[in-house]
Amino acid sequence: MPRQLVCGRHAFDLSRPLVMGILNVTPDSFSDGGRYVDQARALDHARAMAADGADLIDIGGESTRPGAAPVAQGEEIARVIGITATLAREGVAVSVDTRKPAVMRAAIAAGAAMINDVTALTAPGALEACAAGGVGVCLMHMRGDPTSMQLAPAYVDVVREVGEFLRIRADACIVAGVARNRIVLDPGFGFGKTLAHNLELLRALPGLAALGYPVLAGLSRKSALGLITGRAAADRLAASLAAALAAVTRGASIVRVHDVRETVDALKVWSAIARTA
Ligand code: 8Y4
What we know:
By secondary structure, the protein is α/β, with parallel strands linked by helices. The chain has ten helices and ten strands. It starts with a strand and ends with a helix. It binds ligand 8Y4.
C-alpha cells in the first residue's frame, strides 16, 4: 500500500513529492487598501498556486522574520481565517502557519487541513488543539526564537540535535492522540542555523526521513541560498529549484516554496527520471 499523509479530509499519496505554496497575509506595506484588498489579492495568489499544481497552500499571518512585530491572536485570526474558509470550501488543502493554539482552533474550525508550527506544537494547548482536529501537523525545529535565533547558533552535533528534538515532538503528538500518518517533520532551514548547519542538515535528510515520517524542506529564497549565490531574495528562483531537487533527492516528501509553477515543472522532470516504472 502506498504511504499516505492524512490531513483532515485530504489523503496525499507520498509516492511523489508534494508542493506546498507559500501565502503570506501579513499586511502589505505598499497597500493602504486595508484588509479587504490584501485578502482579495492573497486569495487570487492562492488560487493561482493551486491551479499551478500546489498540493497545499500554507497561509501565515505572523512573520517569523527576525525583528518582526508580534501579532495579537485576534489580529492573526482576522488575517487568516476568511481565506482559509474560502479556499477550504473550494476544496483546496490549506495549511495554517501559526504558533498559537487559539489560531489553530479557529483555523481547524474554518476547514484547515494542516497546522504548520515553527515551534512544533510546544505552546500549552497546541498538541490538544491539533489532536482533536484531525489535521495534519508539521513539526519544525527552531533554535531559540525568531528574534534571537540567528545571533550565534551553536550545536555540538546539529543533525543529531535536530533529529532528537523532532523525534521527541513526534512522540508527544502520538501520546496526545495525533495519528502517526498525520505527522510531518521539518529541520527548519534558516531557523537558528548557519549556512554550514543548513548544508549539514540537507546532506543528512535521508537520516531524518528514516525516522518514518514524511519530511518537509523549506529552502525557497532563504538567505542560505543568498549566501551561496550572492543574489537578493527576489533573484533566487534557480537556487531555490536546485535546493528543492536536492531535498527531494535526499528523501524530502514536501517542499515549501514561493514559485509553485516552476517547482512543479522541475519536479515533473525529476520524477520522470527518478521513477523506476
Ligand atoms: C524570502 C522569503 C526569504 C521568505 C526567506 C523567507 C519555514 C516555515 C517559514 C520552513 C516550515 C521563510 C513558516 C521563513 N519557513 N515553515 N515557515 N518550514 N514548516 N523565509 O522552512 O520562508 S518562514
